[in-house]
Write a structure and sequence with these properties.
By secondary structure, the protein is of the alpha/beta class. It folds into two domains: about 120 residues, Rossmann fold (3-Layer(aba) Sandwich), CATH 3.40.50.300; about 250 residues, no CATH class. It is about 40% helix and about 15% strand. It is built from 15 helices and 13 strands. The strands form three sheets. Strands 8-9-10-11-13-12 form a six-stranded mixed sheet. The protein has a five-stranded parallel sheet with strand order 2-3-4-1-5. A two-stranded antiparallel sheet has the order 6-7. Helix 8 crosses helix 12 and helix 10 packs across helix 11. The chain is globular, with a radius of gyration of 22 Å. It starts with 6 loop residues before the first helix and ends in a 9-residue tail after the last strand.
Length: about 375
């Protein structure tokens, strides 16, 4: 088992809360992590039809068999269980009594989050980050973008294009129906592929609606499905004005570039190297990596982009302790003067020096103006 950075946060949460929910996309390693961290805890999966029927028909009896606590896998399959779980947690003084996992963010559901408020903490577990993987498994940038970070692709599973084809099919045909009653799955799949073609772009729902052939309300609903199942995330624009008119639409990114590449029909490294979306996919890679680092460490939010109405932009702003740290993301492997244009503009506008440029090359530079040029293999160091 490849050690996960989220282990420390999981142990901390289990020592402070009566229950912990570990959520994330299917096949991100949730079950492997919780069973490794709590090896003596009884384990049940609600994917099993008999177990799920027991939990739904007799929730008190189901929970009553776990006096010392348990791991309940795919807990979103029996949402009725949560009302009964509230009473069990209230009666128990034990911390970390139940560990729940789920492949969609069931805590976003109002009734569940209300019944378990103050009793449960949650941890998002996403696919592998670069610094979790052995160095020997990530040697070339394009190959890594194409493969992504899903754990099965690092334990001898089929080559990425075949694995992702089955993953997409399972997600569309099975998981989507569990989250929302979508009847036209072919149209939904076309919508997901159209989203991949908008990676790193402002989310224009009108345009997506026209190309998909549905209305704006449906697009908004389907975006929420992709968010709750950890397929995409929206990067919000930073709210500080700086006396300029700002773009207000969020930007669309995928949690995993391997999945985005598969949806775009990119199956070979040679195709990705020359693909017109390579720059956008590299930007997606960096932002999703930094997001995963924060989430696995228990930090929520704090990542934004900034763009004004005349096109001046910062690819990523990290907000920490009321300070903003600008990051520019460039896929080129050779450092160019244009790499620093955005941060230079930001410095004049905000009056704050410093920042980082993360690029597709190998050399690191510490510039005299406080800007650090960071190679892609060291991108996680900008959060230190």
């Amino acid at each position: 088992m490849i050690p996960r950075n989220a282990k420390e946060e999981l142990l901390l949460l289990a020592s402070e809360f009566k229950a912990v929910a570990v959520t994330g996309p299917r096949q991100s390693g949730k079950t492997t992590l919780v069973r490794a961290v709590f090896p003596d805890r009884p384990y049940v999966s609600l994917e099993n039809p008999d177990t799920r029927t027991f939990a739904l028909q007799d929730p008190r009896g189901f929970l009553g068999q776990f006096a010392e606590g348990a791991i309940i896998d795919e807990a979103q399959r029996a949402p009725e269980l949560f009302s009964y779980l509230q009473q069990v947690l209230d009666d128990s003084p034990k911390r970390g009594h139940f560990i729940l996992t789920g492949s969609n963010n069931f805590l976003l559901q109002g009734s569940i989050s209300q019944s378990l408020a103050g009793r449960i903490a949650y941890l998002n577990l996403l696919p592998f980050t670069l610094n979790e993987l052995p160095p020997s498994s990530v040697t070339e940038l394009n190959a890594w973008m194409l493969r992504g970070g899903y754990p099965p692709l690092y334990d001898g599973s089929p080559e990425p294009s075949r694995w992702f084809a089955n993953y997409i099919r399972t997600y569309i045909e099975r998981d989507v129906r569990q989250i929302k009653n979508i009847t036209d799955l072919n149209t939904f799949e076309r919508f997901v592929r159209l989203c991949a073609g908008r990676t790193g772009q402002l989310l224009n729902m009108n345009s997506l609606a026209l190309e998909t052939g549905v209305d704006n309300k449906t697009i908004a609903s389907w975006i929420s499905v992709l968010e709750s199942s950890f397929v995409v995330f929206l990067l919000r624009p930073h709210h500080r004005n700086f006396n300029k008119r700002l773009v207000k639409m969020p930007k669309l990114y995928f949690y995993d570039t391997g999945l985005a590449c598969a949806l775009l029909g990119i199956s070979e490294v040679s195709n990705l190297a020359l693909h017109p979306f390579r720059g956008a996919l590299f930007e997606n890679l960096v932002i999703s990596e930094l997001l995963k680092e924060r989430l696995h460490g228990g930090k929520q939010g704090g990542l934004y982009f900034w763009r004004n109405s005349v096109g001046n932009e910062i690819d990523l702003l990290i907000e920490e302790n009321n300070r903003l740290f600008p990051i520019e993301i460039k896929s080129g492997s050779t450092i160019q003067p244009a790499f620093f244009k955005g941060i230079s503009y930001w410095e004049k506008l905000s009056g704050v020096q410093g920042g980082a440029v993360i690029y597709g090359g190998d050399g690191r530079q510490e510039r005299s103006n406080g800007i650090t040029v960071v190679p892609w293999k060291e991108m996680h160091t900008v959060l230190k």
